[in-house]
Every structure is written in C-alpha cells, then in structure tokens.
C-alpha cells in the first residue's frame, strides 16, 4: 500500500503543477496591474492602429479579456476610432477569439478538475490510513521535480526559436487558419505583436517557476525534517 500512496502523491504533484501553471497564466494577464498598458507603450501599438486613445484601447482590452474568461457573452466591442464610433474587431478576429476563448475556458475547467483530484487523493490517503508526514512530502517532491524538469526542457527548446514553436502551437490547438491575421485589416494582430507574446511567455515561465520552486522547497524541507524523526 505504501507504493500506491507514493504513486498517488506523485499524481497529486502533477495535478498541483497543472493548477499552478494555469494560475500563473491568469496571474500574468489578469492580475498584473497595468500590464497591457505597459506592453502597448513598449511596442508603440497605437502607431499601428487608426487614431484612438490609449484609454479606449485599454477599455477594448478589458472587454476582450472578460470575454475570454466567460464574463462577457460576445466580442462585439464598440469604441471610438478616428473620431467615429465603430466595432473594434472584425468578423475574422471574432471567429478566432471564439477559438481562443475555448482554450481559456478549457484551462479553467482543467484547473478545477485538478483541484478535485488533489482532494480525492488526500481523501484516499486518509481512508487508507497513509502516513501523510512520511509519504506525501517526498512524493510531492518527486512529482514536482519530474514535472518541472519536463517543462524546463520544453522552455529551453522553445526559447531557441520562439516564432517556430509559436506557429506550431497554433497548428496543434487550432483546426483552422483564422489565427493568421493581416496587419493591414486586422487590428488584433497589431495590439499583440510577437514581442508581446514573448514577454508574456517569459512572465508566465518566471511566475510558474517561482511557485514550483516554493512548492518543491516546502516539500523538501518537510521530507528532511520527517526523516530526522525517529
């Protein structure tokens, strides 16, 4: 039974890492104050758009992000461009963002499932009378280390050619070519250039790495502490 408990602990660690990854994405794009304004300023996106104010662009962004997490029913966002009120997104952009929304909502659902699975593992261990102090911390250490190692390797590979793997990502997760946008007609591609995605990916990697190391450090400390006990 001890080995089953250890496998359950490793499985729980994987669930926790997925949970932390999804939370890291959310933390960067939703919880970082002024993030989009900073990025828009950095890449001077207003220069690539028809005349509009930063305030209006940030309002459009807020509506877009609310839509992606299911807090808004559609992406028909009205704003002022060139002194006239009009929709910001065209039909192709809206269709693509419907696909992106699907990914966002799927990630949120997966996080909830992982949280439930973690609770199920703890319940299983409690019912089967596992020695939590001696089994859970080292199992979480092992699972966290394995998962983080795989993610670190993938990050290292992606960093060698971000554009290549960015395109590969779209081919894997989208079954159409709606993500191929034209800067001359589609404003979405102009407000989120490749540099924006690189910065965002870097922030997500840093946040996820920090949370993972904290989890690993806590589990390692508990493992060492419990081994010293008679």
TrEMBL record:
Keywords of the record: Membrane, Transmembrane, Transmembrane helix
Protein name: TIGR01906 family membrane protein
Domain of life: Bacteria
Keyword Calcium attributed: no
InterPro entries, A to Z: Lit
Transmembrane segments: 103-127, 139-158, 204-224
Organism of this sequence: Enterocloster alcoholdehydrogenati
Stored Pfam families: Lit
Keyword Repressor applies: no
